[in-house]
Amino acid sequence: MRIYKVGGAVRDRLLGKPVTDIDWVVVGATTEEMLAKGFRPVGVDFPVFLHPKSGEEYALARTERKSGRGYGGFTFHASPEVTLEEDLIRRDLTINAMAEDDQQNLTDPYHGQRDLEARLLRHVSPAFAEDPLRVLRVARFAARYATLGFTVAPETLELMRQLSESNELEALTPERSWKEISRALMEDQPQVFVEVLRACGALKVLMPEVDALFGVPQPPAHHPEIDTGAHTLSVLQQAAIHKQPLTVRWACLLHDLGKGLTPEQEWPRHIAHEFKGLKLIKAVNERFKVPRDCQELALLVGEYHTHGHRAHELKPSTLLELLQSFDVFRRPQRFEEFIAACEMDARGRKGLEEKSYPQADYLRGAATAARNVAVQPLLEQGFKGPELGEAIKRERLKALKTYKEKA
């Protein structure tokens, strides 16, 4: 029995990055031997075990063969005869196909270290094309390591293009796709994830609504970058720079989808794009079974982001409607995330990345003014039921009028 550290732990150590998750592969062992040493089995499809003390995962060396469509369409074979090289060749990228023994001696049969130095994301073997999820994984790695200068090798991008054109991406489950998308959006350069998907044709398959934004012009006076797709990528980049949570980043990606529906003869204006885009945002949310908090914020940002930009111009009644739409009295955090998404949208314009966004404090102040309306005096006046609701609304409207006059 020989045990090796494999994959990301080896890659990140060589890159000088912190090692978080460690994967282990066991060569020359049987399931019975693992159980005898106290390892606990957890693998359903293939033999994976938890270490009796550390709880880390140890997998028996295995080979795999394509047996059906999609991510799960594989037959695995694990036995003591499977070599370390055979186990490593089934991995996606050369930089993930290296192993170390307990003395940090490197096993690198597919030149992963060379590709690390060349800053290349390159597939290990033609079997890469058997797993459509790898298109998303490579794009995610590109987003993670873009700051280090990594790019996708041309031959790997070509394989990704072939996968995108083969209908294999459609076999991915919503859950697997969302797991990769959500992780990619939380990387340092999430816009690179979208760029790579677009470069290989996968964006058109997975998110045609986002792909349709590229080449659609906007008014130069408001958007010096002009192209809506370029603007969306810049907004996403700003969200990463400002360490926004996943909810905000997802909303930033989808906020302008309605502009992809504007007829060419109406370009560069996009009248009512906020409302037109809602059906597209819903479609993307449903396609990937996106978590509810991400779904809700994306829809609200899509509908109201221009309200955020025009905050100072809004009538008190419109301002109150906005606050009520977000249920700001019970869910203040969601309104904060809306404000953040609006600010990222404003900063995601060429040359305006550092421009202040006074609307943020104005909206927060409006929410505070409305929230400070006391209910107890109204109860003491005898208001109850629907009448109480109307009385609270009147008082909040009065508070917002005063706030607007003083602001």
What is this entry, summarized?
This protein is of the alpha+beta class and 407 residues long. The chain contains 20 helices and eleven strands.
Strand content: 5-15%
Question: What name does CATH use for the topology of the domain at 1-112?
Answer: Beta Polymerase, domain 2
Q: In terms of per-residue confidence, which ranges show pLDDT below 50 for 5 or more consecutive residues?
A: none
Mean pLDDT figure:
94
In total, the number of strands is: 11
**Alpha carbon gyration radius:** 26 Å
CATH architecture of the domain at 1-112: 2-Layer Sandwich
Q: What is the number of helices?
A: 20
- The helicity comes to 40-55%
Strand order of the biggest β-sheet: 3-4-5-2-1-8-9
Measure the end-to-end span: 73 Å
Q: Main sheet, how many strands, which sense, barrel?
A: 7 strands, mixed
- CA-based shape: elongated
The name of the CATH superfamily of the domain at 1-112 reads Beta Polymerase, domain 2
What report would you give on this structure?
The protein is α+β, with helices and mostly antiparallel strands and 407 residues long. Among the domains are: 1-112, 2-Layer Sandwich (Beta Polymerase, domain 2), CATH 3.30.460; 372-406. Helix content is 50%, strand content 9%. It is built from 20 helices and 11 strands. It has helices spanning 8-15, 31-36, 84-89, 112-118, 133-145, 154-164, 174-185, 190-199, 202-206, 208-211, 228-241, 246-254, 273-276, 278-287, 292-309, 316-325, 332-347, 359-371, 376-380, 385-406; strands at residues 2-6, 23-27, 40-41, 48-50, 57-60, 62-66, 74-78, 99-100, 106-107, 120-121, 151-152. The strands form 3 sheets. It has a 7-stranded mixed beta sheet. It has a two-stranded antiparallel ribbon with strand order 6-7. The chain has a two-stranded parallel sheet with strand order 10-11. Strand 6 (62-66) and strand 7 (74-78) form a beta hairpin. Helix 5 (133-145) packs parallel to helix 7 (174-185). The longest helix has 22 residues, at 385-406. The chain is elongated and about 80 Å long. The model has no long low-confidence stretch (mean pLDDT 94).
